[in-house]
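Researcher: Before we compare anything, I want clean individual predictions. No alignment, no superposition, just each chain on its own. First chain goes here; please echo the sequence and then give the structure tokens.
Model: Echoing the first chain and its structure:
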Amino acid sequence: MFTPFRGTTFTANVAACTSPPYDMIDDAATLRDTSPHNMVRLLLPKTYQESADLLEAWLGDGTLQIDTDPRFYLYTMRYRTDEGVEREARGVIGALALEPIGKRILGHEETMAHTGVDRLELLRATRSNLDLIIALSPAPGLPALLEPEGSPRFAFEADGVRHALYDLERQVPAIAEAVDTHPLAIADGHHRFTAALEYQASHEGRGGWDAIMAFVAPAQGSGLQIHPIHRFFPILRVEEIGDIFDVETAPPSPPTVPGSITMVTTGESKLLIPKAGPIQALPPSWRSASTAVARELLYPRCGVGEEDAVFHPDPERLIAELAGAPDGAVLLMAAVPEEAVSDAAEQRLRFPRKTTLFVPKPRAGLVLRSF
């Protein structure tokens, strides 16, 4: 299920060649100016064939090289939280065998329709995993196996995070066995995973299309943070909700209690705390997710759905939208606890789309997987 592979890596100036994941790139032009070999040129090309041609050229001129032997890669990200606490996220990069979500590979949130088409076409053109998905493993023995073997192959700082990549060769059998013994929950990259499944279905026989590059981290104590993603509704008319929520005046900031919601409208903000009776009707893992509470309890009273919302992790950016929407509202969500993500996946439940934002994000370009 989880196997080592021959990675493709940059041979020089790696820091300038890497980029955020494709869906986190805000300023592609600046990244293109950083280096003629920056990953943004592969991830967001003018045409899909342009990306394929560039990849072939970089392999031909030595910009990229393919490792001679298969291996796993230990990837660490050291950073400071918003509270100033130093943390390290740690996981292993390998090739994860593809299969439909539901048995050994689990999803934890719904996805938006059609957004995977672009990644599918890029996969077809390049025959490569240019960036990775994040999966969480509950295997109890995995953390002890994620120790460096010697010096890092690459180490650099980008966007306030210290990134380091190590070759892992001695622990290959033990890591593969640990990961294979438990179902994995996809934490980030649902659309890439769906695109890879569609690409696999278009082929007959076995091949490199039967797997996807994945960063597998421990489900508990991964070092990753889970940030909430908030909602702005241009029009939100709130009917009587006192029977399902305790309503208190509160500052316009994300709540700290899982499952609660801060509703910000023009001139005021209220904290909505679900009452014990209504919230008990929800599955346990959903009770800790503000987005699930909103979808199941609040939206029916307001006549809206997720399709009416604008999503963003920055509260201030959404609150600024209220200046042009006097009948609108911003719903600020609490962060979902780490254990609730695993619980939802194991129970085959899905949070609403855009519930979780795992940070820091692995850099695209530290290692690629071609086939």
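Researcher: Okay. Second chain, same rules.
Model: Second chain and its structure:
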Amino acid sequence: MMSGIRGRDTKLEVFLRRALHRRGFRFRKNVTGLPGKPDIVLRRYNAIILANGCFWHGHHCHLFRLPATRPEFWQNKIEANMTRDARNIDQLRETGWRVLLVWECAWKGRTRITPEDLVDRTAGWITGSTEFAEIEGAA
């Protein structure tokens, strides 16, 4: 089951990459030399974008619900993912990278924001100076 889950090139990642490329941003994807192999790396802006699935990364929104089968396994799995994510973000920030987390709920579901707003907010963060930010679905 889990072998069929995409670890990269998710719909959200592909959307963001295409939209950012159309706006003139150039980047590398899934850079292996950095903690966690970030989804999008913009060296010119010293910026990293992580496109996180709400279920797999334990975002507390309407898209996250622990499965009824094997709940202890899933709880441990999600908690381990969250711990790893926090460690990777800390390491990236300690080495001078700016980090943007884009959550899946910003892209789909009942709290999604418009694609234009998502790209505008992402592009604004890239060209800004904020060291860490998150984009999630509307409250």
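Researcher: What stands out in the second chain?
Model: Residues 2-22+37-135 form a domain with the Endonuclease; Chain A fold (CATH 3.40.960.10). Additionally, The first helix runs from residue 11 to 22.
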